[in-house]
């Protein structure tokens, strides 16, 4: 008999028919009740075993983690919290799981322990829920852009451009590391390497994306991105997924509108399509909150937070206004957290961003018009000559979730900027062609997909929202 997904069984409209379910045992109580999960939903289906007519050898093998196949009748359940259960007529153990050795027993595990078992942690309720939410969110990303007529572009993963992300790039070579050919000066001769030049893994698809936007009008990328982040934080991965839309003829205001609309759409989509998983994750967070002192507890539940983002506009604030707020907000310089920022032009630290979002505005914030000196070379210079049309979107509990800008469309201004920063014009000849042939106002942004998943799931460490996290010293799986 063909198996039916647990999710479909639980939403069945008829009972008393014969069904088959296959999945993994979560728990087995009183030698009778199997809580069976097959990954299709956070909910288990209860399977009631006729223990009097089942051999002891079989009963012994129904352990947490074992794969089983149950065939029986779908009946209404008398137990609380479940509509249906399966009255088992036939049970088959598909794969045993030694209870002494299976690490994912139904108890609370530390997140650190679970990370060390990234291949098995997905068997837990929380990680099953997170991975389903992640999957639905990626679908929502495509849905949003496709509905709006954006073209999905796959920018290269191996790139030859060195202009961005200096010091954060993973190098790519086909040669054995200890036999890299040297030139006469003793430097590595990349001309003899596979591509005939120095190459690395992409840190962003933006520059390539711009060239496509300047032909297709509106494009987006959604792909893996690599940064050799040398610090261990709860917000950075060495391999993450980035969504980068780029739109011709959009200025920074239109870019902000797009980012806000997009984020609200995907969050709404998750609420509409992952209600059970989000409710479960909310419950898990509420449990965690109980062990915290009252003052540290969150004012809103997870679902309240998500709905809040949908119902409220993001606050748009210029960098200069933000600096004034931060200056005024320093009540006492001796305090542990000094929100003071010494001078206009300094980059904001995460404590400043958190203050603005969590304490001052208490909502998502779009900061724009940053000092040119702290932003990338391709951003549109404002008439004041010192700020650029950049924006960062900051989220409560996360910090920066989006970085974007209106791009410098003026050839001469762009070249001058590159010169000043020592960026090789020849290397970016292809990028400069967008400004040579039919240049126009355009803008775009990059959104770190895992930071979005963090926000939606209420998790706090980015390692817990990607299947196999890549961080310094960690590429075990
Ligand atoms: P941060 O200040 O947090 O290091 P960034 O300014 O270096 O981020 P951008 O170059 O603006 O990042 O990239 C766009 C987006 O990609 C960021 O807003 C963030 O959401 C995400 N992002 C950047 N670096 C990482 C990373 N190492 N891991 C996960 N997401 C990242
Ligand atoms: Mg960074
Ligand atoms: Mg940043
Ligand atoms: Mg940024």
UniProtKB/TrEMBL annotation:
Question: Which Pfam family is one of those matched by this entry?
Answer: tRNA-synt_2
**Reactions the enzyme catalyzes:** tRNA(Asn) + L-asparagine + ATP = L-asparaginyl-tRNA(Asn) + AMP + diphosphate + H(+)
Occurrences of domain Aminoacyl-transfer RNA synthetases class-II family profile (ranges): 131-467
Q: What are the GO BP annotations of this UniProt entry?
A: asparaginyl-tRNA aminoacylation
User: What GO terms fall under cellular component here?
Assistant: cytoplasm
Please name the GO terms that the record assigns under molecular function. asparagine-tRNA ligase activity; ATP binding; nucleic acid binding
EC number(s) of the enzyme?
6.1.1.22
- Alphabetical keyword list: Aminoacyl-tRNA synthetase, ATP-binding, Cytoplasm, Ligase, Nucleotide-binding, Protein biosynthesis
Question: Major location, coarse class?
Answer: cytoplasm
Report the locations given in the UniProt record.
Cytoplasm
Organism superkingdom = Bacteria
Using the UniProt record, name the top-level EC class of this enzyme in a single word.
ligase
InterPro entries (alphabetical): Aa-tRNA-synt_II, aa-tRNA-synth_II, aa-tRNA-synth_II/BPL/LPL, Asn-tRNA-ligase, Asp/Asn-tRNA-synth_IIb, NA-bd_OB-fold, NA-bd_OB_tRNA
Q: Which family does the similarity line name?
A: Belongs to the class-II aminoacyl-tRNA synthetase family.
On assembly, the entry states:
Homodimer.
What's the protein name? Asparagine--tRNA ligase
| Native source species | Flavobacterium flevense
Taxonomic path = Bacteria, Pseudomonadati, Bacteroidota, Flavobacteriia, Flavobacteriales
């Amino acid at each position: 008999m063909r198996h039916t997904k647990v999710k479909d069984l639980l939403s069945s409209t008829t009972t008393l028919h014969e069904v088959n379910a296959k999945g993994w045992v979560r728990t087995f109580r009183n030698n009778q009740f199997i809580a069976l999960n097959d990954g299709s939903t956070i909910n288990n289906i209860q399977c009631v075993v006729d223990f009097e007519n089942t051999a002891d050898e079989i009963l012994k093998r129904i352990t947490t983690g074992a794969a089983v196949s149950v065939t029986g009748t779908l009946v209404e359940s008398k137990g609380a919290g479940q509509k249906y259960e399966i009255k088992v007529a036939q049970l088959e153990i598909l794969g045993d799981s030694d209870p002494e050795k299976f690490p994912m027993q139904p108890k609370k595990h530390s997140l650190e322990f679970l990370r060390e078992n990234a291949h098995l942690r997905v068997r837990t309720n929380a990680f099953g829920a997170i991975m389903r939410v992640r999957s639905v969110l990626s679908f929502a990303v495509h849905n949003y852009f496709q509905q709006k007529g954006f073209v999905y572009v796959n920018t290269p993963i191996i790139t030859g451009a060195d202009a961005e992300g200096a010091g954060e790039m993973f190098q790519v070579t086909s040669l054995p590391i200890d036999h890299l050919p040297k030139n006469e000066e003793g430097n590595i001769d990349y001309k003899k390497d596979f591509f005939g030049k120095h190459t690395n893994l992409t840190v962003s698809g933006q520059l390539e994306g711009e060239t496509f936007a300047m032909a297709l009008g509106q494009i987006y990328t959604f792909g893996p991105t690599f940064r050799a982040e040398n610090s261990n934080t709860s917000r950075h991965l060495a391999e993450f997924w980035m969504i980068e839309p780029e739109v011709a003829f959009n200025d920074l205001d239109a870019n902000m509108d797009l980012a806000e609309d997009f984020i609200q759409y995907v969050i709404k989509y998750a609420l509409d399509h992952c209600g059970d998983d989000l409710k479960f994750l909310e419950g898990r967070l509420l449990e965690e909150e109980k062990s915290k002192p009252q003052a540290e507890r969150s004012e809103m539940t997870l679902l309240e937070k998500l709905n809040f983002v949908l119902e409220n506009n993001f606050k748009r604030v210029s960098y200069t206004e933000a600096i004034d707020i931060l200056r005024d907000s320093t009540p006492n310089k001796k305090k542990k957290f000094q929100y003071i920022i010494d001078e206009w032009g300094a980059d904001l630290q995460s404590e400043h961003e958190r203050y603005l979002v969590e304490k001052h505005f208490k909502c998502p914030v779009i900061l724009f018009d940053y000092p040119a000196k702290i932003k990338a070379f391709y951003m549109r210079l404002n008439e004041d000559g010192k700020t650029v049309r950049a924006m960062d979107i900051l989220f409560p509990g996360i910090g920066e979730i989006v970085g974007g800008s209106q791009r410098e469309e003026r050839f001469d201004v762009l070249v001058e900027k590159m010169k000043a920063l020592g960026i090789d014009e020849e290397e970016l000849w292809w990028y400069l062609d967008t400004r040579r042939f039919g240049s126009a106002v355009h803008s775009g942004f990059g959104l770190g997909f895992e930071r979005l998943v963090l926000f939606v799931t209420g998790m706090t460490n980015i390692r817990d929202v990607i299947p196999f996290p890549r961080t310094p010293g960690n590429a075990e799986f």
